[in-house]
Amino acid sequence: xxxxxRPPMIKEFHDTAVKDRLNTFFAAFMDGDAEKMKDCQAEDYxxxxxxxxxxxxxxxxxxxxxxxxxxxxxxxxxxxxxLYGSSVVGNFAVFEYNxxxxxxxxxxxxxxxxxPNTKAGDKVEFVGVSVVWWNDEGKVKRHLEHARxxxxxxxxxxxxxx
Length: 162
Description:
Layout: H1 16-31, H2 34-39, E1 41-49, E2 54-58, H3 59-69, E3 73-85, E4 92-103, H4 111-114, E5 123-134, E6 140-149
Parallel strand pairs: 1-6
Antiparallel strand pairs: 1-2, 3-4, 4-5, 5-6
């Protein structure tokens, strides 16, 4: 379970291990707690984030990126849309979400990934899908990420949620 004070993002799911693991990881992500995120990942963790062009990203590379990114953002939120999967070793979970944050400072160096809204106070919003596979310790060993910036008129309330 997460030590975060925020309420769990996923309230109900038939596989409580999946629910608890994802709630712990995403609470750490929203809290900017790179150490807690690292605790959720296997030693041999590998991530591909296609839109960001981060391929075969190791646990240490992910930790380094999050250690730089998280302190420069605030008011980060995830809204779950759908969840499917299993906590059984070798199986996976698919998590569809809406996600946003605000920059604390100007970040022109990330405009290639986040669009023109990279000034202090700008909101950046995505809709996306995460796929995670578990190891025998219940940690994420493989993580595929695919998200895109939302478009004008996007309304997550028009999407059927969990």
